[in-house]
Amino acid sequence: MSDFALPQHTKQTAAQIAVEYLRWQKHTDKIDVAAIEEYGNGWLIRGTLPIDMEGHQWAEKFEVFVDLKGKIKDTNYALL
What we know:
single chain, alpha+beta, Nuclear Transport Factor 2, Chain: A
C-alpha cells in the first residue's frame, strides 16, 4: 500500500462547489453564504437565497454538506 492521499478540498473550494450546485438546483445567482463550518468528514455551508412563490419573493435558508472529496452528500432547505 502506498501513502498516497486523496486531495482534500479547502473551506473555500467547498463553498464554491455548494454555490455552483445551488445555482444549478435553484436557478439563481443570488446566493448568500453566511457560514462555512468543518463538520465531521467535510464542510457544512449555510446561507440564504431568494425564491419566487406565486409571484412573491421569499427567503429560503439552505445547508449543503460537501465531503472532503468535493461531493455533495446532503442538502436541507427551509423558508425563513
